């Protein structure tokens, strides 16, 4: 989301969707994002800017991003725009015998052999990342996510929004996990993308932290506790200061004071934008209820430290909606009575029911949310369809169906 506007809490949002480009026959990654952008801009520009949805490159040359160019105030209204641009990109890719593939990680890509970094504009940034961190691993070159940008108007609004987002981050993999297959086999975690994401900057731990951001609720505190620590730690490896900017921050939600927004980064991309926007709409409604103290006062939200939130996050990365919420005080933050046994999926169903009773539920995406909450995360649905069979032919057939879901704008139901 790029904008010079200063919007207040929940006055709009921006969303970014990342997709893989793969060979139409084999579904192997095909590093030709620059050719797609050249087809519409006439140059190897990193961005195609236009009204509605913009396109841009990413670190890896087989990934393309679609994003709202300006903040939007309606998720249902932008769904047809994403669908139209996906069709347009697939039309361009057809000339190269390629197509778009969804989900948060390629199921059999070998990143150490197949990674190609973006070679054109901004290459000095990518080369700096590669020199310091070696971007060939899954945590850098084989991950596609949804970034949700939420605005704030001033320091007070930042503090309230940051408190609410910190609380909700641990539950998000229980909605959005889509990466149970990597390296051609089922992984232990439903959200394997986040398993590797947590370690991709381990050479400088302050960049990612514990993924859950520290409890800081003002610009000055954030700068002191997070930004300055990162910049100080990376300086010996980045003497030219190429990477010393707000976007170096790799926590699960990052403050972008340069555009007065907080960017949520822990969402795996789903099988189609319809599913991604449904998840975003539920997150938006839940955060609004938290900020307005529907279930817990602001001071109670501020009190939560990193460690207990990170423990819940680790559980949902591993088990998705089946993760047990063992901390009753956490479930109580969302109005669930203490002592009520809860999985993350059960807690999400409770949250949606509470929102519905208060007239806050995202009605436009009710059918999609019903699939996700009743049948499980996309990762669980993929695992259920595979039933333990990870033969290459079986994976190709399943992921071809997911690519068809993207074209047809429908959810995957096993």
The CATH topology name reads: Creatine Kinase, Chain A, domain 2
Report the total helices. 17
Indicate the radius of gyration in whole angstroms.
Answer: 20 Å
First-residue to last-residue Cα separation: 34 Å
Beta-strand content estimate: 5-15%
Q: How are helices and strands ordered from N to C?
A: EHEEEHEHHHEHHEEHHEEHHHHHHHH
**How would you state the average pLDDT, rounded?**
94
Q: How many strands appear in the DSSP assignment?
A: 10
Just name the CATH architecture.
2-Layer Sandwich
How many domains would you count in the coordinates?
A: 1
Q: Please state the structural category.
A: alpha+beta
Provide the low-confidence segments as ranges.
Answer: none
| Top CATH class | Alpha Beta
- Describe the sheet with the most strands: 8 strands, antiparallel
The best one-word shape is: globular
- Helix share, percent: 40-55%
């Amino acid at each position: 989301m790029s904008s010079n506007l200063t919007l207040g809490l929940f006055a709009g949002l921006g969303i970014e969707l990342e997709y893989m480009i793969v060979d139409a026959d084999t579904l192997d990654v095909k590093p030709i994002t620059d050719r797609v952008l050249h087809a519409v801009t006439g140059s190897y520009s990193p961005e195609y800017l236009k009204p509605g949805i913009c396109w841009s490159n990413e670190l890896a040359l087989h990934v393309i991003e679609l994003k709202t160019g300006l903040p939007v105030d309606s998720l249902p209204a932008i769904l047809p725009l994403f669908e139209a641009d996906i069709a347009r990109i697939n039309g361009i890719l057809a000339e190269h015998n390629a197509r778009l593939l969804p989900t948060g990680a390629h199921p059999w890509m070998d990143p150490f052999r197949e990674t190609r970094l973006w070679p054109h504009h901004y290459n000095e940034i990518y080369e700096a990342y590669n020199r310091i961190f070696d971007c060939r691993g899954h945590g850098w070159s084989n991950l596609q996510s949804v970034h949700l940008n939420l605005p704030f108007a001033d320091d007070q609004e930042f503090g309230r929004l940051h408190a609410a987002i910190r609380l909700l981050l641990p539950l998000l993999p229980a909605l959005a996990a889509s990466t149970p297959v990597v390296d051609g086999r089922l992984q232990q975690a439903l959200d394997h993308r986040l398993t590797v994401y947590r370690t991709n900057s381990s050479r400088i731990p302050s960049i990612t932290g514990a993924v859950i951001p520290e409890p800081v609720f003002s610009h000055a505190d954030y700068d002191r506790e997070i930004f300055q620590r990162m910049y100080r730690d990376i300086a010996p490896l980045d003497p030219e200061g190429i990477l010393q900017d707000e976007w170096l921050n790799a926590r699960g939600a990052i403050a972008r004071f340069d555009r007065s927004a907080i960017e949520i980064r822990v969402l795996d991309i789903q099988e189609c934008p319809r599913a991604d926007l449904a998840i975003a709409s539920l997150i938006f409604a839940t955060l609004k209820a938290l900020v307005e103290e529907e279930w817990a006062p602001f001071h109670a939200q501020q009190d939560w430290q990193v460690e207990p939130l990170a423990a819940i996050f680790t559980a949902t990365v591993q088990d998705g909606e089946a993760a047990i919420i063992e901390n009753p005080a956490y479930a109580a933050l969302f109005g669930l009575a203490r002592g009520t046994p809860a999985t993350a999926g059960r807690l999400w169903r409770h949250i949606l029911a509470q929102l519905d009773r208060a007239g806050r539920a995202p009605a436009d995406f009710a059918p999609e949310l019903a699939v996700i909450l009743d049948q499980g995360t996309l990762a669980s649905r993929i695992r259920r369809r595979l039933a333990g069979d990870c033969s290459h032919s079986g994976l190709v057939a399943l992921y071809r169906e997911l690519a068809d879901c993207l074209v047809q704008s429908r959810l995957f139901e096993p």
